[in-house]
């Protein structure tokens, strides 16, 4: 089974990686690539040659599909990618939290806030009461209290657009 992730590196490191992959690894001065993570599994170090860079494993705001082609005509889906390894220069600020909130492309900038529905503000006590009354009605009983009855009707109107 294939596992995929996205590796985002600074431009200087990208040039070195490209040179390393295009040349014979034994003749290159950058010789080795290595990445290791600490105990938490989210932060670590990326090493190319003798230089080390801080790295962090972040969750993307949505799943990204990965495709490959053998004949430049037909695309075959190979994986769903949900994480990115972000490599930074030594002085750069690191991303806070476990989620990279900006996605991969400029249109996905701050995607969670702009594109996804917010969770509704529901009082957990009211939800529990309505759930209890629903279970009571389904088992042949009645609703206990008039206020809950009114809230129950509002929920039903919202759900069934009455």
From TrEMBL:
Keyword Transcription regulation set for record: yes
Under the heading InterPro entries, the entry gives: TAF7, TAFII55_prot_cons_reg
- Indicate the principal place this protein occupies in or around the cell: nucleus
Mention one GO biological process in which this protein takes part, according to its record: RNA polymerase II preinitiation complex assembly
Q: Name one GO cellular component term.
A: transcription factor TFIID complex
The UniProt record lists the TAFII55 protein conserved region domain at 1-145
Q: Name one Pfam family in it.
A: TAFII55_N
- This protein's UniProt keywords: Nucleus, Transcription, Transcription regulation
On whether Transcription is a keyword of this UniProt record, the answer is yes
Its annotated compartments are: Nucleus
Query: What CDD domains would the database entry show?
Result: TAF7
GO molecular function annotations of the record: RNA polymerase II general transcription initiation factor activity
Signal peptide bounds: none
Q: What's the superkingdom here?
A: Eukaryota
Task: Provide the family line.
Answer: Belongs to the TAF7 family.
Question: What is the recorded name of this protein?
Answer: TAFII55 protein conserved region domain-containing protein
Give the source species: Zingiber officinale (Ginger)
């Amino acid at each position: 089974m294939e596992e995929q992730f996205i590796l985002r590196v600074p431009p200087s490191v990208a040039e070195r990686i490209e040179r390393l992959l295009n040349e014979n690894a034994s003749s290159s001065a950058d010789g080795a690539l290595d990445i290791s993570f600490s105990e938490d599994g989210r932060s670590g170090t990326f090493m190319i040659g003798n230089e080390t860079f801080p790295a962090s494993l972040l969750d993307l705001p949505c799943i990204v599909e990965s495709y490959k082609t053998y004949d430049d005509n037909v695309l075959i889906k190979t994986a769903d990618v949900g994480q990115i390894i972000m490599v930074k220069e030594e002085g750069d600020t690191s991303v806070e939290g476990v989620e990279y909130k900006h996605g991969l492309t400029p249109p996905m900038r701050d995607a969670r806030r702009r594109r996804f529905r917010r969770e509704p503000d529901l009082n957990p006590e009211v939800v529990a009461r309505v759930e209890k009354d629903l279970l009571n009605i389904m088992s042949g009983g009645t609703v206990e209290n008039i206020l809950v009855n009114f809230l129950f009707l509002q929920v039903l109107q919202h759900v069934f657009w009455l």
